[in-house]
Amino acid sequence: EDIQRLGGVGGDETVLDQPEAVFKKRLVWRLINLFTAVLAASVIGLFESSIHSLATLAVFMPIVASMGGIATTQTATIVVRGIALGDMTPSVLRRVLWKEIRLGFTTGVANGVVIAAIAYVWKGQVLLALILGLALVFNMLVAAVVGTLIPLALKIFRIDPAIASSVIITTFTDVCGFFSFLGLATLLIRYLL
């Protein structure tokens, strides 16, 4: 049931339900996701000239988004589970947030080093590899904070965090990931060309 809700469907939906019975529930979250995707696309649009000047940037954008998405989903899943079990109390918030930030940083560095090496071998540009690695570390840190705090904020506003978290948190990491990667690349574009 929690897995269904994290996917943006009601916990009471089954595989045997008629399409008409679930259409409205799914459409709402898909429309919300569509609008948040437009937000992420608009961030990319801010850097259109950089992407035009160095098309290689477009090659790595899905990696930044995907890694942020999985990191924030993992964090949010643990936090939502903690909320559901009653383990996520104000007294443990600081400890949980610090744990997730440390995990975001360490896994970000590990993944950043790997993708930087891949980018260097693939494209032969040290600076591009470093920018990509740094953007990944930053996005994993954002994922840790967002994946921890957004479900809690939704709970405070009486919105089921299991249903609403995934759409909101992935948008945060997409926007922050694109902004950090493309922003750094834009600042240093003259050294990349």
Protein topology:
Elements lengths: L1 H5 L12 H28 L1 H6 L2 H30 L4 H34 L2 H31 L4 H27 L1 H4 L1
Helix pairs in contact: 2-7, 4-5, 4-6, 4-7, 5-6, 6-7
Main β-sheet, in a few words?
none
Based on CA atoms alone, the radius of gyration comes out at 18 Å
- The CATH first-level class comes to Mainly Alpha
- Helix/strand structural class: mainly alpha
Query: Which bin fits the share of residues in helices?
Result: over 70%
Shape: globular
Number of helical segments with 4 or more residues? 8
Mean pLDDT over the full residue set? 92
CATH architecture: Orthogonal Bundle
- The total count of strands amounts to 0
> What is the CA–CA distance across the termini?
50 Å
Q: Which residues sit in consecutive blocks of at least 5 with pLDDT less than 50?
A: none
Q: List the secondary-structure elements in sequence, H or E.
A: HHHHHHHH
CATH homologous superfamily (4th level) name: SLC41 divalent cation transporters, integral membrane domain
The CATH topology turns out to be Tetracycline Repressor, domain 2
The domain count comes to 1
What proportion strand?
Answer: under 5%
